[in-house]
Amino acid sequence: MRTHSRSEWASSTFKIWLYTCLASSALFSPLVSAEESKTPLAGEAFQTEVKGREIDVPTRSRRSITAVDFGVLVNPKGPRTQEVLPYGSFFVWRNADTRRFRGTFSGLYNDARYNVGSDRAHGWEAVFTFNNYIVPFGRYEDVEGRAIEDVELKWSSIFAGLGIGYRKPLPPGHQDSALEMALTYEPGYLWFDRSSHTSSAFIIPSDTYEGRVHFRLRTDLLDRNLMELAHKGMSFGGDLVSGHRAHWQQWGGVVFDPPDVQKERNYLAGSVYAVAAGGVPFVGSDRHRLIGSAYGGIGQHLDRFSAFRLPGRPKGYEWDALSRPMLPGVAFNELFPRRYFITDLTYRYGAMLALFPYIRGTYAVVERARFADNGTIKMQMDSLPAIGGGIITRGPWRTQIEANYTYNFGIFRSTDSGPQMGGHGIFISLSRGLSSSKSKSESSKTPPASDEAPMNIIK
Fold first, then answer.
1. What total number of domains does the chain contain?
2. Cβ distance 64 to 93 under 8 Å?
3. Positive or negative CA dihedral for 203, 206, 207, 212?
4. Count of helix runs (H) and strand runs (E) in the chain
5. DSSP-derived secondary structure letter, 31
6. Which domain range does residue 205 map to?
7. What is the CATH number for 371?
8. Which of 147, 200, 228, 413 is most buried (most C-beta within 10 Å)?
C-alpha cells in the first residue's frame, strides 16, 4: 500500500510539473514583445539595451578556454561522507581544428584527450588519452540508505590510451559542431587496499593490469546561447568499452554475493545518449525552451569496479560533458548499476539576458543494490522519478551560477526510524572563465558586457 501510494504521488507530481511547463509558457508569452530580438548565441556579437544603456558585445572566440568550476552538493540524510560534498576542477579547451586538447583536472581525478591530424588527412587523426582516479581514503557502498562499511576499500586507477579518430564538421557550423569518432586501446592499472573500516572477512581484490578497447562517438549539432546552454538542435553519441584484467583473483564476500571472477576478468559496457533542444510548441518567442535528454547503459560481467557510476552533481553543458548522465537527487557515485535508463524534460525561460530559471522532470529505471529477505544484498531494477528546478545566471566576479533543488521519489535516505524512500538534493555551482580569445574588432561605444566566456561546462 505504501509503495502504491508513493507511485501515485510521483505520477501526480509529474503531471503537475508537465502542466506547469505548459502554463508557464502561456503566462510568460504576453510579457514578451513581438519585436524582441532573437536569443544571442554563444560567441556571436550582439547589441542590447539594459536600463537605457546601450551595450555592444563583440564576437568571442570559443576555441581557447580555460575555466574553473567549483560548488557544493548537499544530500540531507544521504551517504555519511556525502551529505555535504564540495567539489572543484579546472577545464582546458583548445581547438585548432586539426589539433584539439580537452582536459578536466581536479587532483584526485584528471581526464585529458589530445587529437592531432592534418589538413591532408581528410579528417583522420591520432588520439591520445589519459585519465586517473587516485583516492587515498576508503569508499564504501550504500544500500537502502545504510552504509555498508564492511566492504569499504581504497581503490585507484590510471589509464593512458592511443588510437585513431575521425572528425567531420557539421551544421550549424560552430567550432564544436562535428561528428567525432575514435577507437583507442587504453592500458592501465588498478590497485586496492584496506581501510580502517574494512571487515577482516572481506577479501581485497588483487592489483592488476587492465587493458580496454574503447570506441567512442560524439555528434553535436546544437546552437548554444550566450550562457553556453543548449538552445536549438541535438547532440547524440555513445561509448563501447571491452576490458580485460590480467591478474584477477577471488575477492569480496561479507553481505554481497561472491563474484564470479572468471567472468569479471573480461567485461563489456555500452552506453548511449541523446539531447535535443527547441522551442515550446505554439509559442513564438524563443525565450521559452524545451530540452529533452535520454541516457542508457548496459553491460556484461560488470562488477563494483567496472560498473557505471551515476553522478548526482552537475556535469555541465559543453559538447562532451553532455554525454555523461546525471540522476538528480542522488549523491555522487552513490549508485553502481550494470543497467540504467534515464530520461528528462526541462522547461527553461529566458527571463533576462543572463537569467534562466528552469524546471525539470526526470524518470529513471536503474539497477541498484537492495536487501533480500535473508539479509544478503541483491541487484534489482527500480524506478527513481524526480522533479526539481533551478536558476542559471551571472554572478559577481564574472561567474556563472547555477542553483538547483530536486526531490527524488525513489532514492533511499536514512532516518531515525530506519530507511525511507524519497530524498532531497541541492547543488550550487559556480563557474568562471579564466581566459578567452576575443575578436580584434570591439565596439568603442561601451565596454563589452562580458570579456570572458560564461562557463558551466565542467563535468
1. 1
2. yes
3. negative
4. 2, 21
5. G
6. 2-438
7. 2.40.160.50
8. 228
Longest Cα pair distance anywhere in the chain, in angstroms? 75
Query: Cell triple for residue 353?
Result: 539576458
Q: How many CB atoms sit inside 10 A of residue 264's CB?
A: 19
**Residue 163, C-beta contacts closer than 8 angstroms, at least 6 positions apart:** 126, 127, 129, 182, 183, 184, 185, 214
Q: How many CB atoms lie within 10 A of CB 127?
A: 24
Instruction: Please provide the distance, in angstroms rounded to a whole number, between the alpha carbons at the two ends of the chain.
Output: 40
In a domain, 96, yes or no: yes
CB count in 10 Å sphere of residue 130: 16
Whole-structure pTM value: 0.87
Gap between the Cα atoms of 136 and 334, Å rounded: 18
Spatial separation of the C-alpha atoms in residues 210 and 132, rounded to whole Å: 13
Q: What is the pLDDT of residues 153-185, one digit of tens each?
A: 999 999 999 999 999 999 999 999 999 999 999
Three-state DSSP class for residue 223: strand
Q: Please write the tens of the pLDDT for every residue from 191-240.
A: 999 999 999 999 999 999 999 999 999 999 999 999 999 999 999 999 99
CB 56 within 8 A of CB 446: yes
- Tell me the CA distances in angstroms from 452 to 48, 401, 449, one per residue in order: 18, 15, 9
Three cell numbers at 456? 558551466
Q: Which residues of the chain have pLDDT under 70?
A: 1-37, 312-314, 435-459
pLDDT of amino acid 216 = 98
For residue 172, whether the previous peptide bond is cis, meaning omega lies within 30 degrees of 0, is yes
Query: In whole angstroms, what is the distance from residue 204 CA to residue 182 CA?
Result: 35
453 vs 443: CA distance, rounded Å:
18
Query: Does 186 fall in a domain?
Result: yes
- With respect to residue 458, please indicate whether it lies within any of the assigned structural domains: no
Beta strands 46-50 and 53-57, pairing class: antiparallel
Side chain identity at residue 36, one-letter code: E
**What is the C-alpha to C-alpha distance for residues 88 and 313, in angstroms, rounded to an integer?**
11
Cβ neighbours of residue 374 closer than 8 Å, sequence gap 6 or more:
none
Query: Would you say residue 361 lies in a domain?
Result: yes
Which pLDDT score, from 0 to 100, does residue 8 have? 54
Paired residues of 389 in beta bridges: 359, 405
403 DSSP β-pair partners = 391, 428
Closest CA to 226 of 443, 13, 47, 6: 47
